[in-house]
């Protein structure tokens, strides 16, 4: 990702008197320290429940959830089995932790964050910029928030960044770059169009492609293509059809929220990273690959049927950055170029320039600490809900619950058979009297008493600063059903 003109190896952001990579190393250490100090208490997102279910199945040696005795209520029945729409190639990274101490799986995401920081430092230094500009990478609230989850967008976005670093350099590494692009797609299917754009731009901009370079690019992409084809054939019976696409709403790119989404993502890219829109100028991006990849990400995200955090108002601004992550990470180095060329030449005191990296590090550390404290409080409430359910519902029990309920029943919390139903379906299931009925809602809401007829009820309220829920459990009406706590 070279650009025209080279700035001195130690620019104004770094300062000549400070050892190289001091700020970068300090930021990485602060990230790790805060992460470990407030290590995620549990998961809280519905998708994480599904990913943990798939990782649990993989730890049992199968991609089929039913063979592992898992029924979450959100999996896909197909060809006599139940399959997950999520990436098995991401879930397999979590499987060792799930088989031992499942919360260690969060370290996978954190590890990819640190890998991305190391890659950005290398890209900056190759282009004559100070490694201090890696603060633009760490000052990404979406990256920091999702580093505390088990979702695959952070690993996938980082691998796309790795690919750009390997391909767009003085001595490109097409095999390794294509391998990284393929890995990003295996981790998250959304990166497929982005990978094609990056590889295509590299191919075109190379001009006269040598046979050796072309062969290396194809060879690097081959493992991902082969693995995806084999997995698709095993799950959907079609090597070209992924289970993610078979879930109906995953095909919903109708642009129902096009205008607000375009505004949201456009404004977000202006600040994450600061000056991120400068990545659209080839002068700073150094290649058409980054601008076109960003346009691809923005198009996909803006036409999609939802974004994270939509229902939380202003509080949903940070979670909503998930789909923007590939674009915001790719924009870090171009944004640093813009600041170095267009902003810093403006007369600023030498002392202020030297203090800027220290101030940026402090802002990052305090911001990540505040985010982690607030998120941990939310996770603690989720953990309280999971513990209450595990205590009141025995392992192996059949549970009937509504939308928003099943995310609490990941196999790492307890092993149950979960059936989702709407109001009518739940009332009908409740009439069978042989399972547990679980209702979860806001404290002001009330469940239909018919759901719990002739059942013993147990209630609990869990809350955090921003989240509060009432849980009602109706025990089976048939006598003799055991109730008690079972470890997962």
Write a structural description.
With 488 residues, the chain is α/β, with parallel strands linked by helices. The protein folds into two domains: 22-346, no CATH class; 380-474, D-Maltodextrin-Binding Protein, domain 2 (3-Layer(aba) Sandwich), CATH 3.40.190. The chain is built from 18 helices and seven strands. The protein has helices spanning 22-37, 46-59, 88-99, 106-126, 135-138, 141-146, 153-167, 174-187, 191-205, 211-236, 243-246, 258-271, 282-285, 289-303, 325-330, 332-343, 350-392, 423-430, and strands at residues 76-78, 81-83, 398-401, 417-420, 436-441, 457-463, 468-474. It has a five-stranded mixed sheet, sandwiched between helices. α2 crosses α3 (88-99). The chain is globular. The relative contact order is 0.12.
Question: Top keywords for this entry?
Answer:
single chain; alpha/beta; D-Maltodextrin-Binding Protein, domain 2; five-stranded mixed β-sheet; two-stranded antiparallel sheet; 7 strands; 7% strand; disordered N terminus; disordered C terminus
Q: First CA to last CA: what distance? A: 48 Å
Strand content: 5-15%
> In angstroms, what is the radius of gyration?
24 Å
**Low-pLDDT residue intervals, each spanning 5 or more residues:** 3-19, 481-488
Listing every helix as H and every strand as E from the N terminus to the C terminus, the arrangement reads HHEEHHHHHHHHHHHHHHHEEHEEE
Shape: globular
Average pLDDT reading: 86
């Amino acid at each position: 990702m070279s650009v025209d003109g080279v700035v001195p190896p130690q620019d104004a952001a770094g300062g000549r008197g400070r050892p190289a990579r001091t700020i970068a190393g300090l930021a990485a250490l602060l990230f790790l320290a805060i992460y470990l100090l407030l290590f995620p208490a549990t998961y809280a997102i519905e998708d994480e429940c599904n990913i943990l279910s798939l990782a649990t199945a993989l730890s049992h040696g199968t991609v089929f959830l039913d063979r592992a005795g898992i029924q979450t209520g959100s999996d896909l029945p197909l060809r006599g089995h139940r399959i997950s729409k999520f990436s098995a190639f991401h879930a397999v990274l979590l499987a060792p932790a799930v088989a031992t101490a499942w919360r260690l799986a969060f370290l996978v995401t954190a590890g990819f964050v640190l890998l991305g920081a190391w890659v950005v430092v290398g890209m900056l230094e190759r282009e004559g910029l100070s490694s201090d500009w890696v603060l633009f990478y760490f000052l990404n609230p979406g990256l920091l928030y999702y580093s505390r989850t088990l979702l695959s967008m952070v690993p996938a976005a980082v691998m796309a960044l790795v690919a750009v670093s390997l391909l767009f350099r003085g001595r490109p590494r097409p095999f390794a770059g294509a391998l990284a692009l393929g890995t990003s797609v295996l981790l998250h299917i959304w990166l497929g169009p982005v990978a094609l754009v990056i590889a295509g731009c590299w191919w075109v901009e190379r001009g006269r492609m040598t046979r050796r370079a072309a062969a290396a690019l194809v060879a690097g992409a081959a493992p991902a293509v082969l693995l995806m084809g084999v997995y698709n054939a095993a799950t959907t019976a079609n090597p070209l059809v992924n289970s993610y696409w078979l879930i109906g709403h995953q095909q919903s790119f109708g642009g129902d929220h096009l205008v607000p989404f375009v505004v949201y993502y456009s404004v977000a890219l202006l600040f994450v990273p600061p000056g991120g829109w400068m990545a659209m100028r080839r002068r700073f991006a150094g290649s058409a690959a980054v601008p076109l990849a960003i346009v691809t990400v923005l198009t996909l995200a803006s036409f999609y049927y939802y974004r994270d955090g939509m229902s939380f108002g202003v509080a949903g601004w940070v979670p909503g950055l998930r789909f923007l992550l590939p674009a915001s990470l790719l924009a870090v180095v171009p944004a640093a170029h813009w600041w170095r060329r267009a902003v810093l030449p403006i007369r600023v005191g030498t002392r202020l320039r030297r203090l800027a990296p220290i101030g940026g590090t402090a802002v990052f550390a305090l911001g990540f600490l505040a985010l982690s404290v607030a998120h941990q409080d939310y996770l603690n409430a989720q953990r309280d809900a999971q513990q209450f359910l595990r205590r009141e519902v025995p392992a192996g029990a059949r549970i009937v619950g509504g939308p928003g309920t099943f995310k609490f029943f990941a196999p790492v919390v307890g092993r149950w058979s979960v059936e989702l139903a709407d109001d009518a379906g739940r009332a009908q299931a409740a009439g069978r009297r042989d399972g547990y009925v679980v209702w979860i809602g806001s404290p002001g809401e009330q469940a239909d008493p018919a759901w719990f007829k002739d059942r013993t009820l147990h209630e609990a309220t869990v809350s955090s600063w921003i989240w509060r829920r009432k849980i009602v459990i109706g025990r089976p009406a048939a006598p003799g059903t055991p109730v008690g706590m079972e470890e997962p």
